[in-house]
Structures are given as C-alpha cells and as structure tokens.
Backbone:
C-alpha cells in the first residue's frame, strides 16, 4: 500500500490540484504502485466527481477510503459527451477488470435453445455455448429438460434438422435418414426429401415462432386445416391439426403475462452492503421465454441506480440484443445515455445476426420503472425472486462446511482469539421512541443458528441503547457465574420469567386438570433445562453497534468477573468490527466468508428483536384500548385498521377518532384522553 499523506487536509499524497482537473465529461482510473487499474468511473464533471474521493480520509466511506489509500495515482480522459463517457467506461472495465468495480459472479452455465442459421443446413440444438457463429439463441432456461420438451413439441410442427454433423453425414452417405426422419420429426434434407432452401425457410419459421410470432402461425395452420378439410384432403388436415396441438402445447409451457405483442426484459435486484442478486425475466410475445439469475459482488458502496447501470451492461455485453422495453427497479442518473448505448447494442446485434423474416428493428430501447398494472406485477415478481436468491446465496455460503470452517478461522485470526469462535452470541436492542424496549440474543454454533437457544429480553426502563446493552449483557453474564441463579433471579423490576429468557420456539405450557401431572415440577424442570443451555459460555460475544455499545458491554463484562470471552461489536453503516479499548476497527475483507457469517449473525439478532418488539407493541396498545369502557375487541381492531398504525392513532383528534365506524363522540374522547394521558 502506498504511503498515505498526513497533510493538513488529511488526504492522500497523489491528490491532484483542483485546477488541474477539467470540468468536462470523462472517465477516470485509479492505479496502484504497480500501475494496475483498481477502479474505473465516469463523470459528467470530472472535477466535481474526483473531489469526492479526496476529502479528508476520516469522512470517506470505509470501502472508498480503502480504495483511495490502496491507489497510488489517478488519471483521466476527457470525452465529448456523457454517452461517450459511458462507452469508454464500459470498454475499460471489460479490458482491465478492476477489483473495486462491481464484480459479476454467475456460477451457472445456462442452457439455451439455438438454431444455427449460419449453417448451410440449419440445425436446432440445446447448448450452453454462446459463441456459435450466426446462431439465434432462445432462453436461457433453468432446466435442460424444459428445453428438450419444447423442442420435441416444436419439431412436430417445424421438422427442422436436430441431429449432429456426424449423423447427418452418415445419412447422406448411406441414403437412409435417421429415426427422426422416419417418425416425421425431421424433414430429412440429408436424403433430399426437402431442398436446402425449403429447409432454411422451415428453420426461419421455427425461429420466428420462438421469437414471439406464435399466434400468427396458429392462425395460418388453422386456415390450412380448414381448407384441407373443405377439399376432402383429410390426411393434410390431420397433419395440420397435430401441428396446431403441438404448437399450443409448446405455447402452454410459457407463462402468459402480457399482451402478445409485448417484448421486454424485467429486472429485479435485491442487494445489501456486500452483494446483490439479479433476476432477469425475458418476455417475448407476451410470454416468459427464459429466466436468468446471477450474483453481483459490491466492492464499493453504490446506490441502486448505479447498480442498475452495471447490471444492464453485464446482461447485454454478449450477443444478447436488448428488447424494445426494459423494466428496472430504479432509473440511473444517466438513463438517457444508457438508452443510447442499449440502442446501439440492439442495432449491432440486428446487423450482425443472420437475416430474419419480418422488418428489422428500429433499435429504440426504453428504460422504465413500472408503476402499476401487469408490468408492475411482473417487476414485483422479479424482485421477490431476487430477494429469495440473495437469501439463498448467503445461506448456502454460510452453511457450507468448508466456508464455515474458513470463516471461523478467519474471525479467530482477525480478532486475535486463542480458539475459533465455535459458539457466538449476538445481542441487539429494539424500541419505539424509547417505549417497549426489548433485546434479543441469538446463538450460532459451528457457524449455524441454534434457534432453540435464542432468548428474548424485556427492559423495563433505560436511558439509551448503551444502557440497554449494559443491562442485557449483565443479566446474561449472571448465568455464567459459579453460583448461577435460577431463571427468575436476574429479572428486571416488574418482569416475569416468561418474558425474560424465552426461546424462539417458545415453552408456553398451560396448567391442566389432570391430577396425575405435577405441573410445578415440570415447569421447574423445563426452566432448569433452559438455564443449563443459557449458562453455556460463548467464545465470542457480539453486540450490534460501534464503540459506545462495545464499551457498555465491556463494562458489564468487567463487573461480572467472567473471563475467557472475546467481545466485539459490528457497526452496520460501514460493516466495521470494533474491539474494546481500540481506536481503530478491524476490517474483514469484503465478500469474505468471515464477514458474511458475522453479518448473518447480526441480521438474525435484529430480526428476532424486531419481531418481539412488534409483538409487545401490538399487545400493549390492544390492552390499553381494551380498558376503555365501550371499546371491545371488534372496535379496537376497527380503530387500528382505520388509522393504519398506533402512531397515527395517537396523533388523531377526537373528531377524527369519532369518524371510525362504531365509535361515538364519547368513546372517541375517552380514547383520546387515554392515549394522551402521559
């Protein structure tokens, strides 16, 4: 890493003078001491954009600071327009593969349906090779068998050659077609049953049907079937009927989502600080013809609009031609320039591809954010699939044994622990404007969650989050002392054992009437079992927060006298790991299994705390309203439904409350007084 200057501006030594940087559009590159390109970016105004990187280091985002301090120099190239800047940035990213730019990870090799229109005798084939010359591709498909089923049906209507080159040459030499020719699923150009010209026309019809002109062919075949029947050519009519049934069956395998003349791609993106999952729904002729998904690694913290730009560039960098309409979750700042780039890609693909039937495309591409209707529903479906894919990606990465082992070892090394953190506990606090304060404790053993050992805490009174952390850690550490108390001995004032250390699965038994059951003994035994699990010490104790929260937890740890536990905190904004009495955080490598594991632990603690806090809040307001004379459960439900939230209900006037069905002026006044009594 190059030396970092400690000048009065507290920035890097290679910072150029502001007057040296032009104000025109352009592309810039950060390089390290070995001249390797670390990051490529574009700007409408180079001076304004680069000045953001040379602020005082302490004010930069951690990832940006790491990139700037790793670099040794910055250089720029001025261009004539923002569109040219977009083109040059795209070219350089592909050429240099900078480590701090968005990295695309697609571990799937998707199967495609290809028609080799560049061959003298075109062939239909299923392939994962995207580099066949002059081939038309359809897909990608998630399953190979789905393509094979479609091809099998399509060949009944369009009997295009599907055999390999070796099989075709053998048939030519022997004069005998293969089995597909005998059963009518190939027109057998190998033995002269059809001319090469007529076979090419058949292949182009196949391509046209797959490209979305399916309804036209159904209508044409229907007319041919009727005409054949009217002329008493029943054999031809039967062939047309079978072809219609095959095409309708093939069409049925593609979900109908939009009007038949709609061609678009819908992108759904789910992302967090480290990664993003992308779902691309390919709609042609109003039907979903293919689905593609991949994962994006984010090295720098970028906004959704900028992420959309890089996703689209990656999606259409190969031979894929963009459709006329692309649905995205958010428009990037330079949406018009990106549309120009996509239009150029569309025209290039049209000109470079084989001649196809019908008019050529105009090249126009429109980026849109769907607001309502069927397209918005499709976009929501894509986003939902992206969210599920991101969860699955992180879960698989965390649950993989090799990845877990490496993550635990990396955490051990980064925090300087004597042993790997085989048991980790994470604590988070949740409240609503200082009310209904609760906390959660989640447990991971060997890198996997132990939900039966999760605990929930009620905090009767606290001044702030650090005080809440101190109380919770103190109560938890009380179980680790040699004279560990029973489940009810370390509760806060006014608290019950049920709300103190309840596992997520719950243990809420009710007393029965069977005299043969000693309910008190059973409950005592259950409490003892929970206490024994609760008293198992963690190797690593994590709190959600930075230096203040870690200091509060350390104070509780010191006062308890418990030793042998490593303490750390994770600050969400920068994903930094803070240790007690440390002025600088520990930075785990981005996209590392170690950081993924710590993140998942923190997110699980947050989820568990939020769930409990919401349940408490709902129960409390229902109880409060239920105490008001004349306000039963039905009217309480109607009140909450009408105002949508407790906060809106608290802000309502008596007149507004009286507008709710079944609530009169007297009851409304009582509700207002009760909610504003404090």
Residues:
């Amino acid at each position: 890493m190059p030396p970092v200057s400690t000048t009065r501006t507290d920035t890097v030594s290679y910072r150029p003078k502001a007057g040296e940087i032009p104000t025109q559009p352009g592309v810039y590159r950060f390089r390290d001491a070995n001249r390797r390109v670390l990051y490529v970016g574009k700007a409408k105004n180079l001076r304004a954009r680069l000045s953001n990187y040379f602020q005082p280091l302490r004010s930069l985002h951690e990832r940006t600071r790491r990139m700037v301090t790793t670099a040794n120099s910055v250089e720029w190239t001025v261009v004539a327009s923002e569109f040219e800047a977009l083109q040059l940035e795209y070219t350089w990213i592909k050429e240099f593969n900078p480590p701090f730019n968005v990295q695309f990870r697609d571990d799937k090799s998707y199967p495609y349906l290809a028609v080799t229109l560049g061959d003298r005798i075109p062939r239909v084939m299923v392939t994962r090779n995207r580099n066949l010359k002059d081939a038309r591709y359809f897909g990608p498909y998630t399953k190979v068998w789905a393509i094979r089923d479609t091809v099998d049906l399509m060949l009944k209507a369009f009997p295009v050659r599907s055999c390999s080159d070796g099989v075709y040459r053998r048939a030519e030499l022997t004069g005998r077609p293969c089995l597909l020719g005998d059963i009518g699923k190939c027109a057998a150009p190998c033995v002269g049953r059809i001319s090469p010209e007529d076979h090419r026309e058949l292949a182009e019809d196949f391509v046209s049907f797959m490209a979305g002109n399916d309804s036209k062919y159904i209508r044409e075949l229907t007319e041919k079937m009727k005409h054949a029947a009217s002329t008493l050519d029943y054999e031809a009519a039967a062939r047309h009927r079978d072809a219609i049934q095959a095409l309708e069956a093939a069409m049925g395998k593609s979900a109908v989502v939009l009007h038949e003349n709609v061609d678009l791609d819908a992108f759904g993106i789910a992302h967090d600080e480290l990664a993003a999952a992308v779902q691309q729904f390919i709609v042609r002729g109003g039907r979903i013809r293919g689905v593609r998904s991949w994962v994006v690694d984010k090295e720098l913290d970028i906004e959704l609009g900028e992420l959309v730009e890089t996703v689209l560039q990656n999606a259409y960098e190969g031979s894929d031609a963009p459709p006329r309409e692309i649905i995205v979750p958010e428009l990037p700042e330079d949406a018009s320039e990106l549309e120009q780039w996509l239009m150029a890609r569309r025209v290039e693909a049209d000109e470079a591809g084989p001649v196809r039937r019908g008019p050529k495309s105009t090249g126009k591409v429109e980026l849109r954010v769907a607001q309502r209707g069927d397209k918005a529903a499709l976009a929501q479906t894509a986003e939902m699939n992206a969210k599920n894919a991101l969860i699955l990606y992180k879960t698989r990465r965390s649950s993989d044994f090799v990845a877990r082992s490496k993550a635990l070892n990396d955490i051990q090394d980064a925090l300087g622990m004597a042993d790997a953190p085989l048991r980790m506990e994470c604590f988070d606090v949740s409240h609503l404007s200082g009310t209904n304060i609760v906390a959660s404790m989640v447990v991971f053993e060997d890198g996997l969650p132990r939900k039966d050992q999760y605990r929930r805490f009620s905090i009767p009174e606290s001044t702030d989050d650090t005080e809440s952390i101190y109380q919770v850690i103190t109560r938890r550490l009380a179980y680790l002392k040699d004279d560990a108390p029973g489940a009810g001995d370390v509760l806060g004032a006014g608290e019950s054992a049920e709300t103190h250390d309840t596992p997520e699965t719950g243990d809420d038994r009710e007393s029965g009437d069977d005299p043969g059951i000693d309910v008190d003994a059973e409950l005592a035994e259950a409490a003892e079992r929970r206490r024994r699990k609760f008293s198992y010490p963690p190797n690593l104790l994590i709190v959600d927060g930075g230096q203040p929260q870690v200091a509060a937890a350390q104070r509780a740890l010191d006062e308890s006298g418990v030793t042998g536990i490593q303490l750390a905190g994770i600050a969400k904004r920068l994903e930094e790991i803070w240790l007690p009495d440390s002025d600088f955080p520990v930075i785990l490598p981005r996209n590392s299994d170690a950081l993924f594991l710590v993140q998942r632990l923190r997110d699980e603690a947050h989820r568990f705390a939020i769930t409990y806090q919401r349940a408490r809040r709902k129960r409390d307001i229902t109880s409060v309203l239920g105490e008001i004379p004349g306000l039963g459960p039905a009217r309480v439900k109607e009140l909450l439904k009408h105002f949508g939230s407790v906060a809106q209900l608290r802000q309502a006037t008596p007149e507004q409350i009286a507008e709710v069905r079944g609530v009169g002026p007297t009851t409304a006044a009582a509700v207002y007084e009760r909610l504003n009594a404090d």
